[in-house]
Amino acid sequence: MNIDLFRKQTPGCGRKIHFNNAGASLMPQPVIDSMVEHIQLEAMTGGYESADLKANEISGFYNSAGELLNCTAKNIAFTSSATNSFSRALSCIPFFEGDSILLANEDYISNQIAFLSLQKKYKLKILRAKSLPSGGVDVEDLKRLMDIYHPKLVSLTHVPSNTGLIQPVEEVGKLCEERDIYYLVDACQSVGQIPIDVQKIRCDFLSATMRKFLRGPRGAGFLYVSDKIINQKLEPLFIDMRGADWISTDQYSPIMDARRFEEWELPYALVLGSKAAMDYANSIGLEKIKERNTYLCSLVRKGISQIDGLRLLDLGTNQSSIITVEISGQQAQDVLYGLRHENINTSVGYRSFALIDFEAKRVDWALRISPHYYNTEEEVDTLIQALKKYPS
Fold first, then answer.
1. Low-confidence winner among 71-75, 242-246, 312-316 (lowest mean pLDDT)
2. Bridge-partner residues for 251, per DSSP?
3. Which of 161, 169, 384, 386 has its Cα between 20 and 30 A from that of 371?
4. With 80 as the cut, is the pLDDT of residue 392 above it?
5. pLDDT band at 361 (very low <50, low <70, confident <90, very high)
């Protein structure tokens, strides 16, 4: 991998040491250029007219996402975020009173809140599979709960935001397919970090964002929708003229692809920036990105493990590019802004962000460090030296 080239193409690398790629990564120049060029075109030509002129490039967004996930363009919908994608998928599941939803303790906070909201409104039952002592969902317990309750939906966060593990989404997908259970995967943190193949995962939906490891713009995401969902004509709660044809006074017909989950008004500068980000990742190769990330994370974890007063919180035999650390005797904001003062970007996860997981680990907050392939060994060394100042 030509790390020097990637850094030259990333203007932010000259100003910051960025270890907050799980929050919002630094965008490379091709992503920036594609958005600026389109905004300038809209300013000079008009929004509608610019979209017409760039129709082929805009259409290419769906092809690029299909290449990234190993699916076709018709299975992809552009959305404003991973949470928006998740909500649109969730809104189309035909729930009835008494149905159940099965998930993991480590699932993302917004997903947990959405399920609690559904429970309150529709009297659904929420089931949570046990976590293994070594970390991650207990697949055998998940299977047991599937066979007892036959839930309407199984939902799993592929890479949880506040703990450094990778959940076994492919193994769970096989169980769901065998039992004809809808399967929703939150890939917000995994897309762009590790290879994703929806054919191997066998999910009905997969939600993702652009701003994290894909290094795309904020305010952009996408949703994968399986052929099964499209053919069953399941649709989001509020479908609009983008997703359906008005065929008679009191009747509409949903279109037969994933654009059913889009809205008519799209931010085309962000669509084009998202395409550029996915093309950039695809050109490097997700296997190479994964290998580089694994190497960088091993350096960070090794360095942290040698500092008294710091405790690595990550569990799981298959760990991700999210590293969570307890720093004894310190306040979260003091550490966060102290590192920023040294031009090192990280982030903080609080107890309320991952209530079940953090209660089990008995921590109120954790520093979250998320390296990506364009980071360097020298930056890791600088981070480790900075962290040595904080233990009490």
1. 312-316
2. 248
3. 169
4. no
5. confident
Domain boundary (257, 283, 309) is at 283
Based on the domain organization, do 149 and 93 belong to the same domain?
A: yes
**Helix and strand numbers, DSSP H then E, in the chain:** 15, 15
- Does residue 108 sit in helix, strand or coil? coil
**Judgement on whether residues 69 and 159 belong to the same structural domain of the protein:** yes
- Does residue 391 surpass a pLDDT of 90? no
Which of 227, 250, 283 finishes a domain?
283
How would you label 180-205 residue by residue, b for 16+ Cβ within 10 Å and e otherwise?
A: ebbbbbbbbbbbbbbbbebeebbbbb
Strand partners, 310: 327
Q: How far apart are CA 26 and CA 218, in angstroms?
A: 11
The per-residue pLDDT for 256 is: 96
Q: What is the pLDDT of residues 206-235, one digit of tens each?
A: 999 999 999 999 999 999 999 999 999 999
Nearby residues of 4 by Cβ (< 8 Å), 6 or more positions away: none
Would residue 88 count as lying in a domain? Answer: yes
- Say how many C-beta atoms besides its own lie within 10 A of residue 122's C-beta: 12
Q: Which residue has the tokens 């099965």?
A: 102
Give the span between the Cα atoms of 193 and 287, in whole angstroms.
9
